[in-house]
């Protein structure tokens, strides 16, 4: 079973669908044609590159290169997360990086060694796509959790102080905010697991089936992927928030407000 | 016990305290009745380390109010903030949480003792199942009192602690406070607090 190739003319036909879209957007005065075209071009260039260098990375398949590539992905994820978070998280970029990297690395190797049981746990064509899947999710979860945490800490400062006065350490006093932030961040993950397969076929499965895999194998991968995504997100989330608690307050236990304003 | 030494405090562009001095000995009971906006609440917050003075110093049991000493100092204080800012959640769980803090482990907290205190402050134990955001101001204030009674710390800092209570309850807490051995700083507009042995301080602004 092989995936049907897409020829150059096929690609051209696919891209042709952009034309009526542009026309419709223009007709309805939706005003996002410029962004649409820039986005399509960016996608073409970025994915073009990815296809090109992944091909070589997979061919080369060297442990150090593979790990370096994963680190680079985490770095990009951390930066884009910080930029999109509307918090002034410059000071938090190193902890963000670490809290994304460590759980991702662990789960990735566990996935390869214990779940898929590869001979080479650093095998590029498993390592890199799986890391990408996890990172996308970790990124979303962490940003939602961080935002929730800091907005609660700001809004409910009086509660925080009341608990400090009741004898709480800083960590004890922020526990209600931590719980809420983790719950909010993780809620979509839990909901996705509960509804997967009902509404749409998830990406990994779709990809594998299109790639010619047996649906049962595709399902096995999908289940494992959902579990490792959940696991990584939860641990990354907790790590990220612990760093935030550590760095987000000054020595008077007060919220470090200059982290928040942008 | 608590000593303000030449304390100055400015909030915004208002000079609330200027070289303020006050010495409160163990067992003393003080009530601040200065008009609103004169910095009464800030005085309590200074002792708790929630607000920093611009000058002078504050001593608590001969220890200066500064970050290194805050854990100890706060562990000696029962504080009722104006709105009794309980976190969101079931009353029973909120109490459980507060008494799980390391410094409160020696309080011998139990639900039985909590229910006892609830009855003392004339609350029904049904309140344990309610959410802290669903209770009335008066209930909230009485719950706050139940908390500091259970915490049983030597110093009480009370910010308008009877503002939402009826006369009978108000009198109950005032009598209780007056008869106790606690060192008390109370901020209140209720004139009922101005009875001996409470020392009334009605102005401290420059």
Structural notes for this entry:
- The complex is a heterodimer of chains A (262) and B (206).
- In chain A, 76% of the residues lie in helices and 0% in strands.
- With 262 residues, chain A is mainly α.
- Chain A has 2 domains: 1-60, no CATH class; 61-259, no CATH class.
- In chain A, helix 6 (124-155) crosses helix 9.
- Chain A is globular and about 70 Å long.
- The N and C termini of chain A lie far apart (53 Å).
- By secondary structure, chain B is an alpha/beta fold.
- Chain B has a domain at 87-153.
- Chain B contains 6 helices and 9 strands, in the order βββαββαβαααβαββ.
- A 5-stranded parallel beta sheet of chain B has the order 6-7-8-3-9, sandwiched between helices. In chain B, strands 2-1-4-5 form a 4-stranded antiparallel beta sheet, with no helix packed on it.
- In chain B, a hairpin with a 2-residue loop joins strand 1 and strand 2 (14-24).
- Chain B is globular and about 50 Å long.
- The mean pLDDT of chain B is 87.
- The interface between A and B is medium-sized, with 19 and 29 residues.
- Chain B: One of its GO terms (molecular function) is ATP binding.
- Chain B: Keywords: ATP-binding, Nucleotide-binding, Transport.
- Chain B: This is ATP-binding cassette domain-containing protein.
- Chain B: Belongs to the ABC transporter superfamily.
Number of helices of chain A: 11
Instruction: Give the oligomeric state.
Output: heterodimer
Structural class of chain A: mainly alpha
Radius of gyration of chain B: 17 Å
Helix content of chain A: over 70%
Number of separate structural domains of chain A:
2
Residue-averaged pLDDT of chain B: 87
Radius of gyration of chain A: 22 Å
So how many helices of chain B?
Answer: 6
Q: CA-to-CA gap between the ends of chain A?
A: 53 Å
Number of strands of chain B: 9
Strand tally of chain A: 0
Dominant shape of chain B = globular
Estimated share of beta-strand residues of chain A = under 5%
State the secondary-structure class of chain B: alpha/beta
Order of helices and strands of chain B: EEEHEEHEHHHEHEE
Low-confidence stretches of chain A: none
How would you write the strand order of the largest sheet of chain B? Answer: 6-7-8-3-9
Major sheet description of chain B: 5 strands, parallel
- Hey, roughly how much beta strand do the residues of chain B contain? 15-25%
């Amino acid at each position: 079973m092989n995936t049907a190739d897409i020829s150059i003319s096929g690609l051209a036909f696919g891209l042709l669908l952009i034309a009526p879209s542009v026309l419709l957007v223009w007709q309805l005065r939706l005003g996002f044609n410029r962004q649409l075209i820039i986005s399509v071009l960016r996608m073409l260039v970025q994915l073009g590159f990815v296809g090109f260098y992944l091909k070589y990375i997979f061919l080369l398949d060297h442990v150090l290169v593979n790990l370096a590539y994963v680190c680079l992905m985490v770095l990009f994820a951390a930066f884009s997360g910080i930029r999109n978070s509307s918090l002034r998280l410059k000071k938090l970029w190193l902890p963000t990086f670490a809290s994304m990297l460590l759980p991702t690395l662990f789960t990735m190797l566990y996935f390869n060694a214990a779940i898929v049981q590869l001979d080479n746990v650093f095998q590029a064509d498993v390592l890199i796509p799986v890391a990408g899947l996890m990172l996308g999710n970790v990124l979303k979860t962490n940003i939602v959790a961080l935002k929730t945490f800091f907005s609660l800490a700001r809004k409910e400062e009086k509660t925080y102080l009341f608990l400090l006065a009741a004898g709480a350490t800083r960590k004890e006093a922020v526990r209600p905010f931590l719980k809420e932030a983790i719950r909010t961040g993780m809620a979509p993950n839990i909901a996705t697991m509960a509804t997967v397969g009902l509404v749409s076929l998830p990406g990994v499965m779709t990809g594998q089936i299109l790639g010619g895999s047996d649906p049962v194998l595709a399902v096995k991968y999908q289940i494992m992927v959902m579990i490792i995504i959940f696991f990584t997100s939860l641990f990354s989330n907790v790590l990220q928030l612990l760093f935030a608690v550590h760095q987000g307050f000054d020595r008077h236990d007060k919220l470090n407000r200059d982290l928040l304003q942008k | 016990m608590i000593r303000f030494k030449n304390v100055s405090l400015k909030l915004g562009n208002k000079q609330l305290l200027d070289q303020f001095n006050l010495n409160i000995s163990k067992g003393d009971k003080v009530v601040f009745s200065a008009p609103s906006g004169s910095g009464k609440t800030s005085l309590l917050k200074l002792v708790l380390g929630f607000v920093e003075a611009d000058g002078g110093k504050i001593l608590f049991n001969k220890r200066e109010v500064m970050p290194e000493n805050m854990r100890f100092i706060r562990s000696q204080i029962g504080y009722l903030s104006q709105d009794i800012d309980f976190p969101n959640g079931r009353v029973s769980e909120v109490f459980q949480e507060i008494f799980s803090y390391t410094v409160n482990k020696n309080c011998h907290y139990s639900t039985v003792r909590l229910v006892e205190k609830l009855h003392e402050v004339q609350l029904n134990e049904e309140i344990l199942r309610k959410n802290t955001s669903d209770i009335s101001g008066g209930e909230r204030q009485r719950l706050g009192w139940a908390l500091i009674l259970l915490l049983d710390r030597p110093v009480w800092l009370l910010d308008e602690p009877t503002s939402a209570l009826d006369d009978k309850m108000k009198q109950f807490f005032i009598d209780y406070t007056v008869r106790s051995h606690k060192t008390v700083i109370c901020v209140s507009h209720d004139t009922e607090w101005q009875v001996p042995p409470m020392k009334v301080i009605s102005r401290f602004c420059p």
